[in-house]
Amino acid sequence: DRYPHQLSGGQQQRVALARALVMDPEVLLLDEPLSNLDAKLREEMRLELKELQRQTGVTIIFVTHDQLEAMVLSDRVVVMREGAIQQTGTPTEIYRQPTNRFVADFIGVANFIECQRAEGGLQPLAAPDIVLPITPPKHLADDRITLMVRPEEIEIDREEGQIAGLIDKKMFLGDATEYIVLLGQQALRVKTEPKVDLASNETVYLTITKCHFFAAS
Length: 217
Hints:
Elements lengths: L8 H13 L5 E5 L7 H18 L2 E5 L3 H7 L3 E5 L2 E6 L1 H6 L4 H6 L4 E8 L2 E4 L19 E6 L4 E4 L5 E10 L4 E7 L2 E7 L10 E6 L3 E4 L2
Parallel strand pairs: 1-2
Antiparallel strand pairs: 3-4, 5-6, 5-7, 7-13, 8-12, 9-10, 9-12, 10-11
């Protein structure tokens, strides 16, 4: 037998949850409960919390700055900035259909490309020699537009694609490989399967398969 303060971080969190649940609450507020745990324990506790909610059916309001926790644990996500709600939706909606640049940047990894309209598409301000063959939606009438692209929404190839770039950095992540590709002064993060094996300083070709548009910042 031990007192709560003699337990490990994960055990203390389990005790705190048990104390709260024994009261059979209608709503349970958890304010960053995993913030002091190491990475492996955080992952274990995320799975336990998900299963606990499924078994008890209790409504949980989970406050976190960790985007992965928000995506994994939530049925619905509310993204707030300075006390104001920016967007409400399912994790999939928040990630795939962000309503503004703040949400896109806060949830997940995003490339932002400041562009201006040009003949044949959009011209990145940081890479004026390149024109992206992309047509912005009609409701954005300004000449300046911000293009947002997720790293996994860019295909990379040695031989063909929409635009040429130069690999600046390569990062092996285990289940994926991430590249930093330079288009002039514009750096793009590109995420691929590990079997795609390219080298730093290699010229490659990129194809943007999906993108999002925002009014220029």
